[in-house]
Amino acid sequence: DYFNASYQRATNTGLNANIPDSQGGRAESIARCYSRLSEIPIYSIPPSPDASLPNSRFCRVRYPAGRREFIQIAQIAVYDNRGINIARGKRTSTNSLYQFRRNGQLTSDPANAVNGQLYAKGPAEEFGRLYTSNYDFNAFWMVDLGETYPVSSVEFYNRGDCCQFRASGLILELLDKDSRPVWSTTLTGAMVQKFSTAPKMFNI
């Protein structure tokens, strides 16, 4: 977990390489990774293509057209074919954001969903650590993985204290570099949902 977190931050090109981690940059992680991890093959070799997996640049969560509801995500993890969570710390976007502030700070930030805290968050912290949308039609949340990866599995962590039903019917999908869907599934109201993207094999 330590190595994964440091590597994900060090290679997140959306963060300033000259600013310390504690100030929102990645300077310290870069120093740690490239002085200690550069000889570890799994970190120094880019992921190899895998024709049996969806090759994806983006992961998106949305409701079907015509449904109006809050989207609440405690965490999304996207794993490549090396088992690395490639969503952690990456750039996020949304077209709908619940404007909840505590001590003047926005606490429903879409980046909350990829901060690496892999659990169903709540109760008192739900708006401090979740991504929460407004009650809008056609709302979506998305993470840009930074480059195209062969994705082996995806995990969704629901809001932990209540309202898990809001996740039921959400579409979780992987998109290629041109934003075309290459894999999708429909979520339930379960607290933690894990999906393999590998094709199912059938005996005939």
Question: Notable features of this structure?
Answer:
204 residues; alpha+beta; 7-stranded antiparallel beta sheet; globular
Task: Outline the structure in words.
The chain is of the alpha+beta class and 204 residues long. The protein is built from 4 helices and 13 strands. Strands 1, 4, 5, 10, 11, 12 and 13 form a 7-stranded antiparallel sheet that branches. Strand 6 (101-102) and strand 7 (105-106) form a beta hairpin. The radius of gyration is 17 Å and the shape is globular.
Summary?
The protein is an alpha+beta fold. The chain is built from 4 helices and 13 strands.
Report the mean per-residue pLDDT as an integer.
84
Can you count the helices?
A: 4
Q: Which regions have little confidence, pLDDT < 50, spanning 5+ residues?
A: 36-44
Helix-strand category? alpha+beta
Helix content: 10-25%
Q: What is the helix/strand order?
A: HHHEEEEEEEHEEEEEE
Write down how many β-strands occur, each being a DSSP E stretch of 2 or more residues. Answer: 13
End-to-end Cα distance, whole Å, is 41 Å
Kindly provide the radius of gyration, computed on alpha-carbon positions and rounded to a whole number of angstroms. Answer: 17 Å
Task: Say what oligomer this is.
Answer: single chain
Largest sheet: 7 strands, antiparallel
Rough outline: globular
Q: How much of the sequence is in beta strands?
A: 25-35%
